[in-house]
Design brief:
mainly alpha, two-stranded antiparallel ribbon, 13 helices
Amino acid sequence: MLYLLSFLSDEVSLLNIFNYITVRAGGALFVSFFLCWFFGPSFIAWLKRKQGEGQPIRDDGPQTHLKKKGTPTMGGLMILVSVAISTVLWANLFNPYIWMLLFVMTGFGLAGLLDDYLKLTKRSSAGISGKKKLALQFLVSGIACAWIMFLEQGPMSTTLTIPFFKNLFIDLWWFYVPFALIVMVGTSNAVNLTDGLDGLVSVPVIMSTVVFMVIAYVVGRVDYAAYLHMHYVVGAGEMVIFCGAVIGAVLGFLWFNAHPAQVFMGDTGSLALGGVLGALAVATKNEIVLAIAGGVFVMEAVSDIIQVGSYKLRKKRVFLMAPIHHHFEKKGWHETQVVIRFWIISILLAILALATLKLR
């Protein structure tokens, strides 16, 4: 809404600052952080009153996790509400990409909220069935994918760009649709798998969002996109404001989720954040860059797939426990060691992902 003030810049020159994407992105970041940080304590207290025993803890997990009993979940609502308010406040609401991202965040968030609610009511770590959860995720992703393809009508709408190469584009034709769906749903579930330790998922999400904040800004400008040999996406620059809101909200949430956590994100937050990252990758045509920037998510998901596949085929486990962050816990790493080391990896991968912009 503040963007509308820029229309009065002829009368008040100072209001011209609301024309700048960077200014509004910074504003969105600080507002979403403040909302999470300021209202967090009262919201967490409300969750505790409503949930009683809090999120159910897996009996087969590391024994150190048993002391987390009573910690409330659904903290992802703090993130989603803060992002939504901040985005509406700072973004250009005439831009369709903003509404697409808000739709994806809300859709995946509602799927996660239902899952968290069933876990609490059943007092079990198993919530909504896997098939139903995937059906909801694919439904939201399908609508988002059609939305993006409609906005990007043209030969590049079904094209896969290859990082590190200047002019290497692969037209997937209609195969792009299932590919895009897998990117969104896969990223959502990978982020969900990563959210298993206090604060673990926050920094990888922040670093991946920073990468796509830069990419959205670049592909949203004709001159920068041409210079870096990237596909120009009309209106993509406005997604920078949404990215800023996500970064601020996740930082605000991390304030309370750092070890020992006062609240858990739950599927409400992790599924939504993963879905948004997938949508950003599809909208900017940088799906492979997401696999690089979100390498921690890929590692977590692949470790889980390997563990399940190995046990079904050979009745043997490859890891002491999956996803892989639990494997390192079982090996004797302290929870904080695992978290910080995974943070370091995510920072390095984000730098590598950004390097692909120039190395083309």
